[in-house]
């Protein structure tokens, strides 16, 4: 392309990003192939606008272009906005599917023999509670289909070429008439590929893809939780006929911990304390996701009371501060007592009877008072 990018989008050279984006939207809608079927000039203008926008919306590319023009971009390795599928996908992502979300499919129908983007893959990975809290690196082995190096994804033996399907004439679709209507369906002979291979590649047997195992290193950040997804660009299934590879999505599953319970960034722990320590108060070392921390338990603590340790929870993704840890005290009643322990508890109980008798006397006194008030009212 030799036309000036600013001229293509009809914007001044000092235009900001928002002006450039609006101009691109206008050009894309005007020259979109779905609105100009069969118009080669409109299709060329559509691709020109996509390339112009990709350069002018990128600060680094724009600086190179402003300084050195098209030759400067070529020297950086830039070769255009990608294939038609990439352009359609980019437009729908930018403008929220202004063309109804069918552009990618229609582009494939117009050129079934063009580059085919590889499928995305999913890998489910289970990690421990602590690995999720602190982050971890994991090497996993995945089995996927990669682009065949022998035929470069064409499916044909080197030296030969695929032929247009005789049934659909290379369109990938067959049209049948039903009354006043015409119904289009996938060609049964080439299965929508638009081509047939009479001399298939010996390595991929005409598929254009070969199965291989590959080890991938995953750097899992601290703070992930079950359901978190990681995207590894280009690690999915290989493309065919020059198409780009798909992506690999790793879905995280975190194992439950024996003692800790997590809710977002907050960690919960039930901590046992003896009856005596709960009554007298004490300071204990409690386990946290980061090691241990001091916790002061006040005198007279009851079972079920909660204490909060600030900043001892799970760190947040994208640099957010860690959450808190909530410790729920569980007062333990002794089950196996020595003779001396039993004597001491009985002595303690005897000294506590005055308080109990006072409590019950007050409770029953209140009850009798209400009964007397009912009798007088009748």
At the fold tier of CATH, the topology name of the domain at 1-111 is Helix Hairpins
Question: CATH architecture of the domain at 1-111, please?
Answer: Orthogonal Bundle
- Biggest sheet, in brief? 4 strands, mixed
Secondary-structure content class: alpha+beta
Strand content: 25-35%
Shape: elongated
Give the strand order of the largest sheet, numbering strands 1, 2, ... along the chain: 10-11-15-14
Number of helices: 9
Counting DSSP E segments of at least 2 residues, the number of strands comes to 15
CATH level-1 class of the domain at 1-111: Mainly Alpha
Global Rg:
36 Å
Q: What is the H/E order?
A: HHHHHHEHEEEEEEEEEEHEEEEH
Q: Give the CATH H-level superfamily of the domain at 1-111.
A: DnaJ domain
Fraction of residues in helix: 25-40%
Low-confidence stretches: 96-110
Mean pLDDT: 82
Distance between the termini: 104 Å
